[in-house]
Design brief:
single chain; mainly beta; Methylamine Dehydrogenase, Chain H; Immunoglobulin-like; 2 domains; four-stranded antiparallel β-sheet; 3% helix
Length: 468
């Protein structure tokens, strides 16, 4: 799925909203601003600034007359300035990645397509787009393309470089001077390691790595490296599913986001759980995640329908169980479909834990072959389901011949419903008249389910049920 999206618009994700309101809950009004001109403009990436403002980075114009697009807004979306910047000597480029050092300077990873193949560039600019230096990687270079970028603590940059034969980290000073090059061999099934993402974490970075596409016995890992290059603890991810996003949960616990979502403790090779989520009958690929005030995780990503049409979704995930947050009396939904489209890209998803606010940025179709940049915000509290009440049910696991016993206020307060791991209701029962419910699971396929109801105070209650 990821490769289909990249061919549609390489390494770019588009956030498209249907209507003027993001309907994750009835109370969520939010705000939205759109920007740009009548020319096509996209938002590939967004960088939050130290003062709380946002720098939106993308492309503008046609492919033959491509410009770098820069837009600075306040924390609430008011436009401060906008730039359409020509990159000296380059036309028809595609922006792959951007990062920013502590001085505010940008490093861009760009590429162009030619007869001999893809030529890649590292371009350093000021925050307003003034080019400082450029480095070229021709199709014949040993290290061919910059897959990801990150700032370094000394004010420079770290570049994750890949080639057909391996990977390396380039450590660059702010002026482009190469300080060192560190080959990356993550002890995978073969010695061909590719870097997918660089995630800055306290004390260093987590590298999301995998073997090359053609490797025998492919693997994917998350490996810690200090900024000095010392290798630390690592975790092997199941199902050869590299991480494209990372959500810190505290301590050494994380969510790895990709075609599946894994909860893991760094240094342990057995993940706590793995969830393959679906939305609109397609496999959901998570790219960004933020924690809500109640401890759920808001995920943003996409699914593919057919050969090329993608849909964009927001999902609420229970980080303890890996299950979708089932519908509740507050009006929250487990899966919210935002839109469908061809020109797909995502600027970013951000949260302010202190205020409970979230911001999403991106670009959307605004007419035939035209795209506009937008920013939307709201309250994270409106996205989170209420704190659930306690529920007890037995026997658990349960077999076909068993009756599932549910007692207390949950059984008598309203109907009970059984949901599968994708948030689909598979069975329901009316409220018990005697204060206790006996639920038949006959005919329910073996698997993991969530039994949901409400208690006497109207709070949602749920429990994980194992059907044998």
């Amino acid at each position: 799925m990821a490769h289909i999206l990249r061919f549609i618009r390489p390494l770019t994700w588009l956030l498209l909203f249907s209507g003027s309101t993001l309907q994750l809950s009835a109370q969520n009004a939010g705000w939205e601003q759109s920007y740009g001109t009548s020319a096509p403009e996209t938002c590939t990436q967004t960088l939050r600034q130290p003062d709380g403002s946002y720098l939106l980075i993308g492309e503008s114009g046609s492919y033959a007359a491509r410009r770098l697009y820069l837009l600075l807004t306040t924390a609430h979306g008011r436009q401060l300035w906008e730039r359409h910047v020509a990159i000296p000597g380059l036309s028809g480029f595609v922006l792959r990645k951007a990062t920013q050092n502590n001085a505010g300077d940008l490093l861009l990873a760009l590429y162009t397509e030619g007869i001999e193949g893809q030529t890649n560039y590292l371009v350093q600019t000021s925050a307003t787009g003034v080019t400082r230096w450029m480095r070229t990687f021709p199709p014949t270079a040993d290290l061919r393309w910059a897959q990801d970028l990150a700032p370094s603590p000394n004010g420079g940059f770290i570049v994750g470089m890949n080639s057909l034969t391996g990977a390396a980290l380039l450590y660059l000073a702010a002026d482009g001077t190469q300080l060192r090059q560190q080959p990356i061999n993550a002890s995978l099934a073969t010695d061909r390691t590719w870097i997918e993402k660089i995630f800055p974490v306290p004390g260093g970075m987590l590298l999301s790595v995998r073997t090359g596409i053609q490797s025998a016995g492919p693997q994917a890992k998350l490996v810690f490296y200090s900024y000095e290059g010392t290798r630390g603890p690592e975790t092997t991810l199941p199902n050869v599913d590299p991480a494209y996003g990372l959500v810190p949960l505290g301590g050494n616990d994380y969510l790895a986001l990709g075609q599946k979502v894994h909860r893991f403790t760094l240094g342990q090779n057995t993940v706590q759980w793995t969830s393959q989520l679906s939305a609109e009958q397609g496999i959901f690929m998570a790219r960004y995640g933020v924690l809500t005030p109640t401890g759920s995780c808001l995920l943003y990503g996409s699914s593919i329908l057919g050969s090329h049409v993608a849909r964009l979704h927001l999902l609420l995930l229970d980080v303890t169980t890996g299950l979708l947050q089932e519908p509740s009396s507050s009006g929250n939904q487990a899966v919210v479909t935002l839109c469908a489209g061809l020109h797909l890209g995502l600027g970013g998803l951000f949260a302010e834990p202190g205020t409970g606010a979230y911001v999403v940025t991106g670009s959307r179709e605004s007419g035939a072959e035209t795209e506009e940049v937008f920013m939307r915000g709201g309250s994270l509290a409106d996205l989170a389901a209420p704190v659930p009440a306690t529920m007890q049910a037995w026997p658990n696991p349960a077999a076909d011949a068993d009756e599932l016993h549910v007692q207390g206020s949950v059984a008598a307060s309203g109907p009970l419903a059984l949901y599968d791991t994708q948030g689909r209701q598979v069975k329901s029962w009316p409220a018990a008249s005697t204060g206790a419910a006996r639920l038949s699971l006959r005919g329910v396929p073996a698997g993991v389910y969530t039994l949901a109801g409400t208690d006497g105070k109207g709070r949602p209650a749920r429990i994980r049920i194992f059907k044998r």
